[in-house]
Specification:
Distance between the termini of chain B: 33 Å
Shape of chain A: globular
Membrane topology (chain A): Multi-pass membrane protein
Number of domains of chain A: 2
Oligomer: heterodimer
Largest interface: A-B, 19 and 23 residues
Helix content of chain B: 25-40%
CATH topology of the largest domain in chain B: Rossmann fold
CATH architecture of the largest domain in chain B: 3-Layer(aba) Sandwich
CATH class of the largest domain in chain B: Alpha Beta
Number of strands of chain B: 20
Subcellular location (chain A): Cell inner membrane; Cell membrane
Largest sheet of chain B: 6 strands, mixed
Number of helices of chain B: 10
Strand content of chain A: under 5%
Protein name (chain A): Spermidine/putrescine ABC transporter permease
Number of helices of chain A: 14
Radius of gyration of chain B: 24 Å
InterPro entries (chain A): MetI-like, MetI-like_sf
GO biological process, one term (chain A): transmembrane transport
């Protein structure tokens, strides 16, 4: 029983058309609820970004305006600083994880390593344990060696966190490159490194790009580790969002959230374009 | 016996100096041994085909020569240079892969010019050489296309151009024709052979197609289970197969069991339930007396009704059987003749109806005799995974 067939049947039988109509009621209800669940909070967030004054019992803000935007982007405002901090930490994290993931992913894809599955699984470990105790301990350790409150410390935490995506996707990307393509380059006189640079790397680039984007987004959104290792010296956007939200400053929190949302959505669109099905099929293999 | 024969071929067919020499080469993956004790010498400018069924080790042998896999024992030399442990980029060989392995992110021209770029040629010199290759291979105007925009035949030629552009010492061809459709394949065979002769490049060609090996190669190496079963000119292998395996692989798939007493070149075949007595003089040393496996092709046989035979010629093996089926694959009628428990295929100009009792005469020139393996079933042993004559005829 599907809606189109009900529509086609409509001219012939009034009963069918009624049944078709009735069938739409629960569907519309489910879809409507879903849309509300997804877009309701987003709409609320968007309204908060332009609300000057909004309090109970008003259903909508009393005054609209962009004065909070001015405050967020003021030269001495925290938001710009934490935006810069967040993006530079994310970029360092991407660089760090790719520097590790390219050789590791290549080795996992090409070499006949014993316990290959176990190695792949090991990268998942930082995610396997509850975050909080792990980061509390990391913070204690970093404090002893002076890494607490430094950008490097936060980057290190983000790298361990992002490495699982980076290594798994990189390994899949390298597996998807036909070994004969590399051998053809070796055969014509390319050294191992030259063949890798000329053939393997360009062909794996879309997959590596996707893994870089995942790591970037993970780093941009990461809260727990940044909080324990970075705060209060290093303030990333999520930390700012947290303190603004906790302080009841919904405008600042909403604008920050919007700033975090934009790269996420943009990158998801790019990832969808870059991550081909044949690479995706090899993730974790 | 096989060893003796191979030795014979070696001295007989090799009047020139060896250029590429393999000595007792062993190779394998993990614990499985794919190649065992391969000895092979190839002269400069020679075209050698490695022929065998799938899994016989021919591709492994080629990849070991190319340096993609290291042998577990033995040595590979070119001239007086030992290449055994050298990486693939230091061997001066160029390979055409079965999949062509063209780089999808480079244009055809960049693919062809890659080897030259590695050699540090100047841009104009590379462009000139690429244009030359494109002209040679009929790829004019296609240099700007990516491999995905080329047809199978064009890709194959780009792959060949990429290998030839660097002017390699040795050209390695890994079944480069197997992905082309049958009609193109026939012309490309001759094109590659003509090109190889013109350029005088030492070439090793891996194939499972007997006819391809026969028309392209100066010499054929037949591999079976990682060992060289026979080595010689196409004609030598076709007319004097050294073992039952080679005979079957070269199309002599009809097999019957005979009892005979042999001495030097003479074979006296005892009368059996399905054959008459005969005494033959062979051009080769005869096998041991006792039970023999006789192999022959379906061509060049005489088929006649029993009782109609023209002469009583004892220099042929005469088999008595009954026609089971007749088909017309083109050219001649192909009869399936039941002889005892097995059956053979016999081509004849005229069709005899099924059910006829017939006499099949196998002339000495087309008969290959081998000592029967100890526990042979009396039916026709399956010809390993060699090509079946019917399939060959239909695709030729």
């Amino acid at each position: 029983m599907s809606a189109p067939s009900a529509f086609f049947a409509a001219p012939h039988s009034g009963f069918d058309s009624l049944r078709g109509f009735l069938w739409w009621v629960p569907r519309a209800a489910v879809l409507g609820t879903l849309a509300f669940v997804i877009f309701g909070p987003l709409a609320n967030l968007l309204i908060w970004t332009v609300a000057e004054r909004w309090y109970f019992p008003h259903a909508l803000p009393i005054d609209y305006g962009f004065s909070y935007w001015g405050r967020v982007f003021a030269p001495r405002g925290n938001a710009v600083q934490s935006l810069i901090a967040s993006i530079s930490i994310a970029l360092f994290t991407v660089a760090g994880s790719l520097a590790l993931a390219i050789p590791a992913g290549y080795a996992l894809a090409r070499l006949k390593l014993p316990l290959r599955g176990l190695v792949l699984l090991a990268f998942l470990l930082p995610q396997a344990f509850p975050n909080l105790p792990v980061y509390v301990n990391i913070a204690r350790l970093f404090y002893e060696i002076g890494l607490n409150g430094t950008v490097l410390g936060v980057v290190l935490v983000h790298v361990t966190h992002g490495l699982v995506y980076a290594v798994w996707i990189a390994s899949a990307a390298f597996s998807a490159v036909d070994r004969d393509l590399e051998l053809a380059a070796r055969n014509l006189g390319a050294s191992g490194l030259k063949g890798f640079a000329d053939v393997t790397l360009p062909l794996a680039a879309p997959g590596l790009m996707a893994s870089a984007i995942f790591v970037f987004l993970e780093s941009l959104d990461e809260f727990t580790g940044s909080y324990f290792v970075g705060a209060p010296d290093v303030t990333t956007l999520p930390l700012l969002l947290y303190s603004a939200g906790a302080g009841g400053n919904y405008q600042i929190a909403s604008i920050t959230a919007l700033l975090l949302l934009v790269p996420s959505i943009a990158f998801m669109l790019v990832v969808e374009k870059f991550l081909r099905a044949d690479v995706l099929a090899k993730v974790g293999q | 016996m096989r060893g003796v024969f191979a030795q014979l071929c070696n001295t007989e067919m090799m009047p020139y100096d060896a250029y590429l020499t393999l000595r007792s080469l062993d190779a394998g993956y993990g614990r499985t041994r794919v190649l065992e004790g391969v000895d092979l010498s190839i002269g400069k400018g020679e075209f050698v085909a490695l022929l065998g069924a799938s899994g016989c080790g021919k591709t492994t042998l080629l990849r070991t020569i190319a340096g993609f896999a290291l042998p577990s024992a033995g040595s590979i030399c070119v001239g007086d240079r030992d290449l055994t442990r050298l990486p693939p980029d230091k061997r001066g060989m160029a390979m055409v892969f079965q999949s062509y392995a063209l780089w999808p992110h480079m244009t055809a021209a960049r693919n062809i010019g890659y080897g030259l770029r590695l050699k540090g040629w100047r841009r104009e010199a590379i462009a000139a050489r690429v244009a030359e290759m494109e002209a040679l291979l009929g790829l004019e105007g296609l240099g700007g296309r990516k491999p995905s925009e080329l047809s199978g035949g064009q890709r194959q030629r780009v792959a060949l151009g990429r290998a030839l552009a660097v002017d390699p010492d040795i050209l390695l061809l890994d079944e480069p024709l197997s992905n082309l459709d049958a009609r193109i394949r026939l012309t490309v065979r001759h094109e590659i052979r003509a090109l190889q002769q013109r350029l005088g490049i030492t070439t090793i060609h891996v194939t499972h197609d007997r006819e391809e090996a026969m028309v392209m190669a100066d010499r054929i190496v037949i591999l079976n289970k990682g060992r060289i079963a026979q080595l010689g000119t196409p004609q030598a292998i076709y007319t004097r197969p050294a073992s039952a395996f080679v005979a079957a692989f070269m199309g002599a798939e009809n097999v019957v069991q005979l009892n005979a007493t042999c001495s030097a070149n003479r074979v006296d075949i005892a009368e059996g339930p399905h054959n008459r007595a005969a005494s033959l003089t062979l051009g080769l040393p005869a096998p041991r007396s006792g039970r023999l496996e006789a192999r022959f092709r379906s061509e060049q046989l005489q088929l006649s009704r029993l009782g109609d035979e023209a002469t009583d010629d004892t220099s042929c093996v005469e088999l008595i059987g009954r026609v089971e089926a007749v088909v017309y694959p083109g050219g001649q009628w192909r009869h399936t003749v039941r002889i005892g428990k097995g059956s053979v295929l016999v081509d004849a100009a005229e069709a005899l109806p099924p059910g006829s009792d017939v006499l099949v005469r196998v002339p000495t020139s087309g008969l290959f005799l081998f000592a029967a393996p100890a526990d042979t079933p009396s039916g026709p042993p399956s010809a390993a995974d060699g090509p079946s004559p019917v399939r060959d005829r239909l695709t030729a």
